[in-house]
Amino acid sequence: MRAIKSLALAVLAVTALLGSPHAIGAELKVPAFTAYSDPLPERVRISPRSGISGWNDPAVKVMWFGELRQIGSVACAVALKLPASGESKLRMTVAGVAREANAKGEANSDTVVSFGAFEVAKPGYQKFLLESLNPKGTQAGNITELILKGPAIENAHFNLKSRRNAASVHLGYPVPDSTKVEAFYCEVTAVEDPVTTFYMACGWHRGYFGMQVNSETERRIIFSVWDSGDEGVDRDKVASSNRVSLVAKGEGVYTGDFGNEGTGGHSHLKYLWKTGEKQKFVVTAKPVDGTYTIFSGYYWHPDKKEWRLISSWKAPKEGGYLRGLHSFSENFWGDNGHLRRKALYGSQWIRTPEGQWIELTEARFTHDPTGREDRLDRFMGIEDGQFFLSHGGFVEGFTKYGDRMTRPAGEKSPAERIKLPELPGGK
Question: 3-state DSSP call for residue 334?
Answer without folding.
Answer: helix
